[in-house]
Amino acid sequence: MKKKRRQKSMQRAGRLAAGAPFAAASLFGLLHAAAAQEATTDTGSLEEIIVTAEKRTENLQNVPVSITAIGNAQLEQLHVENFNDYMQLLPSASVQTLGPGNGRVFMRGIATGDYPNHSGSLPSVGTYLDEQPITTILGAVDVHVYDVERVEALSGPQGTLYGASSEAGTIRIITNKPDPAGFKAGYDLQLNTVYNGTVGGVAEGFVNLPVASNAAVRLVGWYEKDSGFIDNVPGTLTYPATANSPPFTIDNSAVAKKHYNDAETYGGRAALKVDLNDSWSITPAVLSQVTESNGIFAEELKQPGYTQLSAPIGEYQVSHFYPEPAYDDFTDASLTIQGKISNIDVVYAGSFMKRANISWADYTDYSLAYDVNYEGSGSIWKDTSGNAVQPSQYIESRYNYQMYSNELRFSTPAKEPLRFVGGVYQQRQQNLILQRYFINGSNGDGLSAGNGSAPYLGITGWPNTWWLTDQMRVNRDYAVFGDLSYDILPQLTASAGLRWFRYDNSLNGFYGFGINNPYGSPGSPVEGEGTCTLQQPFYGAPCQDATQPATSGNGTTPKFNLTWHVTDDKLVYATVSRGFRPGGANRVLIGGLNIPFKPDYLTNYEIGWKTSWFGNTLRFNGAIYQDDWKDLQYNFLGPYSVTIILNAAQARSQGLESQIDWVPVEGLTLSAGIALTHARLTSNYCGPKFIDANGNPITSCPSPQAPSGTALPTTPSFKGNLSARYTFPLMDSKAYVEGTVVNQDAVWPDLRLYERSLLGQQPGWTTFDFSFGVDRKSYTLELFAKNLFNERVELYRYAECTPGTCAQYASYAGVAPPRIIGIKFGQKF
Q1: Could you tell me how far CA 619 lies from the centroid of its own chain?
Q2: Which strand (E) or helix (H) includes residue 803?
Q3: Is 87 helix (H, G, I), strand (E, B) or coil?
Q4: How many Cβ atoms are within 10 Å of 540's Cβ, its own excluded?
Q5: In angstroms, how far is CA 745 from the centroid of its own chain?
Q6: Of 196, 77, 222, nearest to 723 (Cα)?
Q7: 326-341 and 281-293 as β-strands: parallel, antiparallel, unpaired?
Q8: Cα–Cα distance measured from residue 250 to residue 253, given in angstroms and rounded to the nearest whole number
């Protein structure tokens, strides 16, 4: 019976349900429904979804994994265009974002409120474009979503098949491939307006062009213009007078403007597929995208003590004093070769990605905090004549990132009772990091002697730069993996997988102050030129003080699963799996010791079910799980707001994920889903002073910074969606109306209790999306509203330096766009 069921699924594998219901087989998934004429078969039942999450082509209802598959039609209907769009709709996922190309995703509560940093931990959720990893040191690459076959979201550890950075889950973006069968083309045009903003729009198009009976080219292009919705309001800021410095008052009239954070994204994708014969094909592809933005994608939360002499700051407002443009440019080139050796499927996937990320950021809150707390920075920072300069600061950041990866994979026929998937994997990624912290007006560097009594305190050879980071980070990963499945009985399957991995990570270069820095002394220098152990220059830096030895290690991530097909359309499964993140080097000595951070591991215990009822008009899927997090990597800001990573206390996340998709009558599709998450520390986090010489946390202390039982930050205890879509005839066309509500509880932004009290809690939110559209022949016209009732959606709360220093002057709330109303027209050929 099971063999027939698997053969039937394989016969239909090529027919991805382009409009399959939004989360038909998700254990936590999206709750938007697909159009009824696309989400259902001709008989009104739910369509099946085909996925490749387990490195095979399978019906998702037969895959014992927590997975959401979002088809092409749903992505278009819900106007999903970028990372934040689809991540907001996943109940088991939460997001931190600082703007386009700067998002981090967390799943199942596996988060510590990390400060995203170039020298910090790798992400805990992996991201893939087709077969290629695009999980960068900087976080998730924000690929524009168009002409995408589906997005697969796998919840829970995926360490056996996907390795590092898939500790808590994996996101896969599967593009539409070239098809030699025939010509296809299409375009979509969108015009929209955003509350507190102006007009924006999107233009997208694709063409599938056969060039021979066995070859085709697919070309895709897009341009997106997003209106700003944050206003940079006029304001002034006063640095208090000291005995050695007059007061300094600055204003932002030169940069104040409405709709401060506008953005443009443009790019394209090209792929060639050649079927060499009946067994082998080759697919080279390249994707390139540029995002240019301005301003900050957060609103300012003013605190008492901040000297602001104009009108108070309100919602969707900041008062910043320096321009804040950003530029993110990445190109990903890939090669996929697929074929057969006898009856063994062979896949080679190789890729190379380059990314340049450049940005400028206002840092006046930081400089004010240090000016007040450390007796006036104006008495420290001098020009070359010894005169005090106004101490406001801004930052220039330049990241030049490269990654290449190679995977060779083998799999035996899916119809056999004994099946195997396995292979080898290699990856290398590097990031050349340059950050300059500027104080204008100093007009000198560390070589300038000033008036003999007040030497300039900057970096040698870098004018106006009081702090410099100039580093190279290199992460290398190697793995051998395999997964074996056996049908013990026609309805009972057992599988076991194992991944052996090795990592080698290094961080070298320069970070810190100049030789004449104000905070150290001849006998006790602080980070910078006074602590360099290698005097030769490093990419322009005067010397090297980040010279910790490379960190390496190896280990295994196993997986065990037992699946029982109760009937052809109902199964239950039990899984034990493990995920990991590699360790790395701390650039900061901790207590005078070189203490690298170790890998952390997540062990998952899960029971799940996937069921279809009443002729596949009702689907009820779900899972309950317990995830134990060992040696969790905790990123925080230490002295001088330099990121430190420690292996902190242990934690546990327990949860329930469930979804129902129902077609009660032809034309109407209903979906509902929830994620209940209870994520807590299971031992005390005592702070950076409570570690032993090997970096192991000491959990016994009189006043822990986060005691056992503290809720982990970032992830809500409840998140859920409810949607309804009704399709009906309208004259000689098809029309539809859809409504969706998404709700999330409040969350804390930080793990530590004191820092929580300073930053405050991120409030919960509820959004409503509505759309009405008409399909006529090859044309589609739609009116839509996202966040119709203009709910304020807060995604991330932070301060510009250590909260204990900066939060009393200002903290920030990264917010999603407010209400967007738009019209969309499309055509397909």
Answers
A1: 30
A2: helix 803-806
A3: helix
A4: 12
A5: 20
A6: 77
A7: antiparallel
A8: 9
| 241-246 contacts, C-beta under 8 A, 24 or more apart | 241/376, 241/378, 242/375, 242/376, 242/378, 242/379, 243/379, 244/376, 244/378, 244/379, 244/388, 245/376, 245/378, 245/379, 245/388, 246/378, 246/388
pLDDT tens profile 507-563: 999 998 887 776 666 666 678 888 898 999 999 899 998 888 889 999 999 999 999
CA 65 – CA 660 distance, rounded (Å): 17
* Helix or strand holding residue 333 (H, E): strand 326-341
What CA dihedral angle connects 57, 62, 66 and 71, to 10 degrees?
50
Inter-residue contact 678 to 670 (CB < 8 Å):
no
Separation CA 717–CA 594 (nearest Å): 38
Query: Which two three-digit tokens encode residue 10?
Result: 């394989």
62 three-state secondary structure: helix
Whole-angstrom distance, CA of residue 770 vs CA of residue 772? 7
Strand 139-140 and strand 148-155: the pairing is unpaired
Q: Give 747-778 pLDDT, tens digit per residue.
A: 999 999 999 999 999 999 999 999 999 999 89
Cα distances from 96 to residues 67, 89, 617, 715, 800, in angstroms, run: 22, 14, 37, 10, 15
Q: Pick from 144-158, 340-354, 532-546 the range whose average pLDDT is largest.
A: 340-354
Q: Could you tell me where the DSSP H helices lie in 630-738? A: none
List alpha helices for 427-575, DSSP H. none
In the chain, what are the domain boundaries?
176-362
How far apart CA 785 and CA 770 sit, in angstroms, is: 5
Q: Provide φ and ψ at 75, rounded to 5°.
A: -60, -40
Given CA atoms 127, 132, 133, 139 in this order, what sign does their dihedral have? negative
Over residues 302-341, the pLDDT tens digits come to 655 444 444 568 899 999 999 999 999 999 999 999 999 9
**3 state DSSP class of 540:** coil
- DSSP states of 171-238 as a string? EEEEEPPP-TT--EEEEEEEEEEETTS-EEEEEEEEEEEEEETTEEEEEEEEEEEE----EE---EEE
CA–CA dist 251, 309 (Å, integer): 10
219 contact partners, CB below 8 Å, separation of at least 6: 206, 207, 209, 268, 269, 270
Strands in 298-302's sheet, in edge-to-edge order, are 298-302, 810-815, 794-798
CA–CA gap between residue 297 and residue 818 (Å, rounded): 12
CB-based contact 297:263 (threshold 8 Å): no
Distance CA 112, CA 686 (A): 14
The pTM assigned to this predicted structure is: 0.88
What is the residue-wise DSSP string for 229-296?
A: --EE---EEEEPPBTTB--EEEE-TTT-BSSTT-EEEEEEEEEEEEE-SSS-EEEEEEEEEEEEE-S-
Burial 618-634 (b: 16+ CB within 10 A, else e): bbebbbbbebbbbbbbb
The residues near 667 (Cβ < 8 Å, ≥ 6 apart) are 36, 37, 726, 727, 728
Tell me, what amino acid is at 361? A
d(CA 313, CA 130): 44
